[in-house]
Amino acid sequence: LAHNLVKCMLEITKKYNKKILFIFDSCELIFNFEEWFICNFLILLINENPNIVLIFSRQFDTYLQDMSNINKKSLIIREFADKIKTQSPLIIDLKNFSKTDIKIYLENIFKNMFKNKINKINEKIIDFVFKNSCG
């Protein structure tokens, strides 16, 4: 299943020449996602498809720094980060960003990804990222 999903997403991104943006709250990754999703799908997807961009909050650092809170899921996250072999994933803490910060950050990222073809980020994208990365 994971292999087929990765293959299909690669074909879609190539056919339409589009990027796919995944935004995760790392707490969701730690507590709600199954190990197979992270190890067998997400890592494979990111390493094989340069058109996948991953953004998730670094809030899990607090779990990794506090030895009493390290559990199997947080160790999986650390292993996940070690297995990434591409420059595409972006690990940023959006919770501390204002809408203006997010706009500037996304504009810079997309300019680099699309060779300066993008002059402006749609306000709906900024609102979506802000809404889903705060609180």
Mean pLDDT, as a whole number?
63
Give the overall silhouette: globular
One letter per element, helices H and strands E, the order comes to: HEHHEHHEHH
Oligomer: single chain
| Number of β-strand runs | 3
- Tell me the helix content: 55-70%
Question: What layout of secondary structure does this protein have?
Answer:
Layout (H helix, E strand, L loop, with lengths): L1 H15 L3 E5 L1 H7 L2 H14 L3 E5 L4 H5 L6 H12 L6 E2 L7 H15 L9 H11 L2
Helix pairs in contact: 1-3, 3-5, 6-7
Question: How would you describe what is shown here?
Answer:
The protein is mainly alpha-helical and 135 residues long. The chain folds into two domains: 2-92, no CATH class; 96-135. Helix content is 59%, strand content 9%. It has helices at 2-16, 26-32, 35-48, 61-65, 72-83, 99-113, 123-133; strands at 20-24, 52-56, 90-91. It has a three-stranded parallel β-sheet with strand order 1-2-3. Helix 1 packs parallel to helix 3. Mean pLDDT is 63; it is low at 57-78 and 88-92.
